[in-house]
Specification:
Layout (H helix, E strand, L loop, with lengths): L1 E6 L13 H18 L1 E11 L8 E7 L3 E9 L6 H18 L7 H19 L10 E10 L2 E7 L3 E6 L2 E5 L5 H7 L21 E2 L8 E2 L3 E2 L5 E5 L1 H4 L4 H5 L8 H16 L6 E8 L2
Antiparallel strand pairs: 1-2, 2-13, 3-4, 4-5, 5-6, 5-9, 6-10, 6-11, 7-8, 7-12, 12-13
Helix pairs in contact: 2-3
Length: about 290
């Protein structure tokens, strides 16, 4: 678990036309000082990945951060294809590197997420060059960017993002999967997803075909103090009810404690053949 503080946003400096270089410098310094005093962004973050009952952990989770933003990352290498672990590692490295190289704060968060997912996809396609199409490495992903008191979601496949508020799931991403389509059509219930025979069939993913996969990139949502954001792989959410996930926002435990409790519960619920179980989370402190 880590609690850290970052500050961002440039104030209006009100520099007059014709101002000397020295005066401009003084105003910039005063502006930066005001920024650091007024624009505190406080968050509590943690990440966890359990191997479950598998021989290899093909999930990757990461938290990338700068003085202006935080990016939660969950990648699930698809075990039915070659090099699932390598696919997850390459995708994660691509996304983290893109975040580190991007000017902060991000001018266009949605555009950044879209382009970064595209880069990760292209790198996985390149990783699979020379292999049969059905054997090429693939992965699903979920990204949550926090900046300026707002959150942006982006995902491909069935890795999920949850926003918890007042001990309830206030928002979650919709999986790019066959069972999600059945759910939206009212043909199955939320509780039936985890045990459905086609629960592992995703409609799109990173890698495989050269064409850019279908992805969901959401618009900004304003955060409230106490909001908890989770990005996770299907091994995590498939073993939990929404009420279980929401319990992590009760406020009577640290983010790290809550994630460990829920991940352990998910592995137990999905046993004796539980999948890799991975999650990263951020609590917005205001």
């Amino acid at each position: 678990m880590e609690i850290f503080q970052v500050r961002c946003r440039w104030p209006r400096l009100n520099i007059q036309q014709g101002a000397t270089l020295a005066e401009t410098g003084r105003r910039v310094k005063r502006g930066v000082a005001r920024t650091w005093e007024r624009m505190a962004l406080q968050v509590e973050c943690s990440e966890l990945s359990l191997i479950g009952d598998r021989e290899e952990n093909q999930d990757r989770v990461a938290i990338a951060r700068s003085p202006a933003a935080v990016l939660l990352i969950a990648i699930d290498g698809m075990g039915g294809h070659a090099d699932g672990a390598k696919a997850a590692a390459v995708a994660t490295e691509t996304i983290v590197e893109a975040f580190r190289r991007a000017p902060q704060p991000l001018f266009d968060p949605q555009g950044f997420l879209h382009l970064t997912i595209g880069k990760a996809h292209a790198n996985l396609v390149q990783l699979g060059n020379g292999q049969r199409m059905e054997a090429r490495p693939r992965a699903t992903c979920a990204l949550c960017l926090v900046q300026d008191g707002m959150a942006w979601f982006a995902h491909v496949g069935d890795s999920r993002i949850y926003q918890l508020r007042q001990r309830q799931v206030s928002r979650r991403t919709r999986d790019h999967s066959h069972v999600e389509l059945l759910l939206q059509e009212g043909l199955i219930t939320e509780e039936e997803i985890s045990n459905h025979p086609m629960r592992n069939y995703v409609e799109c993913c990173l890698g495989g075909n050269l064409a850019l996969p279908g992805m969901s990139v959401g618009s900004a949502r304003r955060l409230q103090p106490g909001d908890l954001l989770l990005v996770c792989t299907d091994g995590f959410w498939s073993g939990l009810e929404d009420s279980d996930v929401a319990s992590c926002a009760a406020g009577n435990e640290t983010v790290e404690q809550g994630l460990r409790r829920l991940a352990t519960q998910a592995v137990r619920a999905n046993g004796p053949h539980s999948d890799n179980t991975s999650v990263a989370a951020l609590r917005w402190l205001g």
